[in-house]
Amino acid sequence: MSKRTILVADDDASIRLVLSQALTRAGYDVLPMSNIATLWNHVSRGEGDLLITDVMMPDGSAFDILPKIQKQRPDLPIIVMSAQNTFMTAVKASEAGAYEYLPKPFDLVEVTNTAEKALQERENKANRTSDVEVDDMPLVGRSAPMQEIYRTMARLIQTDLTVMISGESGTGKEVVARALHEFGKRKNGPFNAINMAAIPQDLIESELFGHEKGAFTGANARAPGHFELSARGTLFLDEIGDMPMAAQTRLLRVLQEGEFTRVGGRETIQTDVRIIAATHRDLNQLIRQGLFREDLYYRLNVVQLRMPALRERPEDIADLVRHFIEKYSEETKLRKSVTPEALELLSQHGWPGNVRELENLIHRFVALYPEEVISAEMVKTEFGQNATHMAAPTSGANEGQSLQESVERHLMRIFAQAEPGLPADDLYHRILDEIEVPMLEITLTACNGNQVKAAELLGLNRNTLRKKLNLHQIKVAKNASR
What we know:
Strand 1 (5-9), helix 1 (13-25) and strand 2 (29-33) form a beta-alpha-beta unit. The chain is an alpha/beta fold. It has helices at residues 13-25, 36-44, 62-72, 87-95, 108-120, 144-156, 173-182, 204-209, 226-229, 245-257, 283-288, 294-300, 317-332, 340-348, 354-368, 376-383, 403-418, 427-446, 451-458, 462-471, and strands at 5-9, 29-33, 50-54, 56-57, 60-61, 78-82, 100-103, 163-166, 191-195, 234-238, 259-260, 269-270, 274-279, 303-306, 337-338, 373-374. The termini are far apart. The strands form five sheets. It has a five-stranded parallel sheet with strand order 2-1-3-6-7, with helices on both faces. It has a five-stranded parallel sheet with strand order 9-10-13-8-14.
């Protein structure tokens, strides 16, 4: 069999050289080119078994010619590369029929592996075009964690797969859900969001499935639920971990059978809804505690997207700041800017409230401060006297966090401090000890040193409690040992 030929289009000579050498070593013939005109000449003559192309070229954008290439050569796999690493770049590549999108800088092994896979799956490429502008997209960030999010989303938008979005509060889970809807094939249908944590538990089933007149006190008329209102669209179930067990059972039946009945009703209603769920909680832990159905978890967790915390992508803060300044400057008609020193301080903050906290801060700067420039002094004023220690959020900033979130934050600090290596061994027991000591001490104090009562409260055998007190050298007053 003759060698397969790969067309490489990039206006950067060094990139053309590096790719040509790597692909040649992998056993391919390579035709390098530096502009769209030359690219089209090769493609129109039927040359090449695969195309690897940059987006921005001296004589135009590759996205402008990809539809033409797809029409002329529908069997030609296309790999798009770009330094403009935004979500919409990945989306436009996917919708234009590209087999894969690779952000720059790229890994040569990944490029050659993707090329081989594309050539083997030539019949699987899509033929889609995009009419979406980058500026319309609310997702912002070019960091590696966001690149992975973009690439996964680009594959999901043309499917009806159920998606589970996990991540801390304020990371943008609903923004992602809306993007999957608005750029997907259900975009002409409704998008309905329901927050499980914001609805009284006895009303969740009615909110989801609707109710008949007289189904319960106050049900004076038939009312449709979110499943009916979301027909041929998307239903976003936020904070799914707070859904009561009864509602979980009914939701599982909908996902399995594609039908439901209203509360108090007998009529079976067929449903045509894409489900996207989100949570900031550890559903596996809730399953172990008997608070979440394992079978429902697997129904919802067909594809998982984990939204990174803002502290995991500090390189995106500058782009986010400018994005929010642009967004809120439309309200005040005053175009503001931000100093490098202010951006540096913002980048050092721990951001326990994630992107939502940053957005609220920028909104305050734009709406409440008369200055045209956001300065370091303004940032210090907002953060108070702890501005010089912003890499470790203050205790006040952590108020309202769950124990799980606090432990996660603590573990991330341990791993960050250990870079470029790993923390010392026996991490599991060291963390357990750190949690166990204050738990024992505080419980004993609350029980006035009565070990019998403390053991009962903790759910421990008294002998086990004593062993733990000795292990951690926790002193208990003799006159309060019973």
